[in-house]
Amino acid sequence: DIENDGIVGYKDLGDTEFWITGHMPGFPLMPGVIMCECVAQLAGFYARKYDVLGGDYLGFGGMNDVKFRFPVFPGDRLVLMVQLTKVRPKRRAEFSFQGFVGERMVFSGTMIGVPIHRDQKLD
User: N or C terminus: which one in the chain shows less Cβ crowding within 10 Å?
Assistant: First the structure.
């Protein structure tokens, strides 16, 4: 949705995900850090597709106000919604996000994206 600077994606959770056996033995649920990575990748896709900041990639600059409201289990479809809320050209972009399973919001928060260039090096 270019008019509202938003994007929606989803992740179908199978029972062969790499985290099934290790995150909470005997009680498989999707780790919050993986949910955060999913929205970061969705925001990165949007930022690159519409050249929000320039650079070769959108780097993960941080998250705020993240709330996990309900677990996500194998067999669930996690629907992710990300909206661009603020841009500082060539410096950073801010996004709000929400994740749903069915009609239930399972997590939400805000995140910061920063441009990364392939030839960028630290001195």
Answer: C
> pTM of the full predicted structure?
0.88
**What are the catalytic residues?**
23
Cα 7 to Cα 58: distance, rounded to the nearest angstrom: 15
Answer yes or no: is pLDDT of 121 > 90: no
Q: How far does CA 108 lie from the centroid of its chain?
A: 10
Quick one: which of 77, 82, 68 has its CA closest to 32?
68
**pLDDT band for position 65 (cuts 50, 70, 90):** very high
DSSP state of 112: E
User: 73: number of CA atoms within 13 Å, CB side?
Assistant: 5
Token digits of residue 93: 């972009």
Neighbouring-strand partners of residue 58: 115
Rounded CA-CA distance 16/69 in Å is 24
